[in-house]
Amino acid sequence: MEKIFDWNRIMFNDLPAAFLLEVVLRSVVMFMVILMTLRASGKRGIRQLSIFELVLIIGLGSAAGDPMFYEDVGILPALTVFLVIILLYMGITRLTDRFRWFERVMEGEPVYVVQSGKIRLEELKRTGLSREELFSELRLQNVEHLGQVRTVLIETTGEVSVLFFPDEEVKPGLPIFPGQQKKVLPTDQNRCCAECGEPYTNAASNGCCTCCGCDEWVGSMTTKRIA
Ligand SMILES: [Zn+2]
């Protein structure tokens, strides 16, 4: 067994210190390769990656890093990996441009998760986003309760697009800030389904939500959106 805490091995992997010069050369080469490959892929700057693009980046990343400093990993095999990945990327991009169904398979589809202040629970489940994550995204867009929101669309990149009701059309809605969801209500207060956010007048809510069957209620909010 190798000696543990062998500083020569820990620091230099038992290689001569001059190997660091080779690491410099390898890193420069691989850096240029990554740069040229990403330029060739036609991608512009990146804000959010789709799953497909993430796969591309992970593939390139693992192939790029190793030959920079593993003395037994050559640069040519890594270049081959790059070539294959970029050809796959270009081929798949061409197919997604051409066939709608193929694009759906590769990138997924945008999903409407809120419509007219009501959460579409089944659709939300499809996105893998929890209610709390959705609320957090909405809070970041200055939403105080769901009655302010006409439509929420989860893009294929995971970004959240929101359309708002104009002030005069804001409806009673489910509060989404922590601590605002009051569950003990005066009998005359209008309320929302705690699960899907469907608004009810007090009289209509003696039982379960007709939309999702939930029997928990939260007092509605009616504040306008001041952004
Ligand atoms: Zn409901």
UniProtKB/TrEMBL annotation:
Transmembrane segments: 15-38, 50-69, 75-92
Keywords: Cell membrane, Membrane, Transmembrane, Transmembrane helix
Keyword match Transcription regulation: no
PANTHER family tied to this protein: UPF0702 TRANSMEMBRANE PROTEIN YCAP
Annotated ranges, domain YetF C-terminal: 98-168
GO cellular component: plasma membrane
Annotated family: Belongs to the UPF0702 family.
UniProt name for this protein: DUF421 domain-containing protein
Membrane topology: Multi-pass membrane protein
Top-level taxonomy: Bacteria, Pseudomonadati, Bacteroidota, Sphingobacteriia, Sphingobacteriales
Subcellular location: Cell membrane
